[in-house]
Design a protein that fits this description.
It is a single chain. The protein contains eleven helices and 13 strands. The protein is α/β, with parallel strands linked by helices and about 325 residues long. The strands form four sheets. It has a seven-stranded parallel beta sheet with strand order 3-2-1-4-5-6-11, with helices on both faces. Helix 4 packs parallel to helix 6. The C terminus is likely disordered.
Length: about 325
């Protein structure tokens, strides 16, 4: 890789990846519409375009501009509508962003002869509730939400472009990623939401009885998986996870232990489209990509807690400076 383009590069995983790519000496271009991403998260050494991926013309313009002097070697595709429950309420918008927007990126990759696309798909939402736990990539997908349906549909488009146009790809089906810079909204950010609410003395909502399970993987480990997926020639689908099934109640217990205080919880009914169990088998990524997770859950939660506390201090300092003026 020499020049990389990251869609959603102002977002949670995308911005962490951009930092690591630049640290490793790559030229990086970022596309983001800043709806859920933050401009402050964009590495100042990256070239930034405030572009919505649903605009084919804007996307094509970026690719054309960036391919004049140095061709784009690799595209990491993160830009998406990321809330499962929002997709249930408005499947049309989710389809516009997660499927049609993705096709805009893919088509520009084809026209500009990008070597490879690495796609941030979803594990739990694509597989749906399944009897095989931990779930392997051979399990037949059965998504329970428009979000999962559209992620799976775009995976099929990637395979189509490979078969018809010989355009290589790597699909990483992510478990529940957590860590610094995570967007605070929806169940996808349950750890960060709980931590942020605890740090700021706010109430957290527990949907259901808390016995639903997820597979939580730390963002730094995920970033390493994307870089490995880009560097290697392997085509296909890989689960990126820990292989450990963790209850939401267990997350609450860990947060209360590391913060040494009880969480303020409000219990509500399950939301439509929510899975009961989700845990992914990462054996294929271990064997082919030579990737394994390294961050133990309690350690990752402590790191996320430290980041959230630092954010609170920074925000308070900024408020006080404004107040003084």
């Amino acid at each position: 890789m020499e020049k990389c383009l990251v869609t959603g590069g102002a977002g949670f995983i995308g911005s962490n990846l951009v930092d690591k790519l630049i640290e490793n000496g790559y030229e990086v271009v970022v596309i983001d519409n800043l709806v859920t991403g933050k401009k402050d998260y964009i590495n100042p050494r990256a070239k930034f375009y405030n572009v919505d991926i649903t605009s084919a013309d804007e996307v094509e313009s970026v690719f054309n501009q960036e391919s004049v002097k140095t061709s784009i070697d690799c595209v990491f595709h993160f830009a998406a509508q990321i809330d499962v429950y929002a997709s249930v309420e408005n499947p049309f918008f989710d389809n516009k962003v997660n499927l049609f927007g993705g096709i805009n990126i893919l088509e520009s990759c084809r026209k500009n002869k990008v070597r490879k696309m690495i796609f941030a798909s979803t594990g739990g939402a694509v597989y749906g509730d399944t009897e095989e736990i931990p779930t392997t990539e051979d399990t037949e997908p059965n998504p329970l939400s428009p979000y999962g349906i559209h992620k799976l549909a775009f995976e099929k488009y990637l395979n189509y472009y490979y078969k018809v146009y010989a355009h290589p790809y790597c699909i990483l089906r992510l478990a529940n990623v957590y860590g610094p810079r995570q967007y605070k909204g929806g169940e996808t950010g349950v750890i960060t939401n709980f931590i942020d609410n605890t740090v700021n003395n706010r109430q957290s909502i527990l949907y259901g009885d808390g016995n639903q399970t997820r597979d939580f993987v730390y963002v730094d480990d995920v970033v390493k998986a994307f870089i490995k997926g880009a560097k290697q020639d392997n085509i296909g689908v890989f689960n990126i996870s820990t292989g450990v099934e963790t209850r939401i109640l267990d997350i609450i217990n860990i947060i209360e232990t590391v913060t040494e205080e009880k969480m303020n919880l409000c219990c509500k009914n399950f939301k439509p489209g929510e899975q009961q169990r989700s845990c992914l088998n990462f054996s294929r990524a271990e064997q082919i990509l030579r990737w394994t997770p390294h961050t133990e859950l309690t350690k990752g939660i402590r790191k996320t807690l430290d980041w959230s506390r630092n954010q609170k201090i920074s925000n308070n300092q900024e408020f006080n400076e404004v107040y003084k003026q």
